[in-house]
Amino acid sequence: MKRESRTMTIGLFFSIGLSFAVVASGFCQEYEALKGLKSVKAVFDVRISNPASAALQLKLIHDTCKDKNIMAVTKNPSAVVIFIGPSVKLISKKREGFSSEEQKQLDEIARTVAEMSKDGIRIEICLFAAKVFGVDPASVLPGIKHVPNGWVSLIGYEAQGYSLVPAY
Predict the structure, then answer these.
(1) What is the maximal distance between C-alpha atoms in the chain?
(2) pLDDT digits (tens, 9 = 90+) for 80-138
């Protein structure tokens, strides 16, 4: 009887351990692409003009930069978000021409931009695009660096080894 009890106990612990291993592998998937890396550097090229899409993409960018798999490679991943093209209208405090629903999405964008900046993610706006799309540089959300040409920034970051991630 003792032997059966011990066998059942060992079997139970083995089953529980196996269950945890299966569950953990589902939550903590390993990325082949990250194996062997010592650092992660990404530049996100944001050109989305739709507020709802932009709010979702920015949340995804923020979550990606804080992803546990990336954080396992380096505790301080380097990330830059550059607003180019029509997306520059979404990071202005002036909101004329946007519906009330879109304005809610703009609030979400502003919150996400503030959180990203707080988390050390650098954010830039292309002033060439701001001029083309009628965005007053003084109306741009705080925490966003003004650069004359976003493409020059993209070229520079890529030359420094940053991976380009388009968000269109």
Answers:
(1) 84
(2) 999 999 999 999 999 999 999 999 999 999 999 999 999 999 999 999 999 999 999 99
* Phi and psi torsions of 165, nearest 5°: -125, 105
Rounded Cα distance between 29 and 67, Å, is: 12
Distances (CA, A) of 7 to 1, 10, 15, 21, 44: 10, 5, 12, 21, 55
Judge if 99 and 131 occupy the same domain: yes
Q: Torsion over CA of 138, 142, 146 and 150, rounded to 10 degrees?
A: -120
Which residue segment(s) compose the domain that 63 sits in? 32-167
Q: How far apart are CA 54 and CA 110, in angstroms?
A: 11
**Domain count of the chain?**
2
| Burial class, 99, CB count within 10 angstroms (exposed 0-12 / middle 13-18 / buried 19+) | exposed
pTM of the predicted model as reported, rounded to 2 decimal places? 0.81
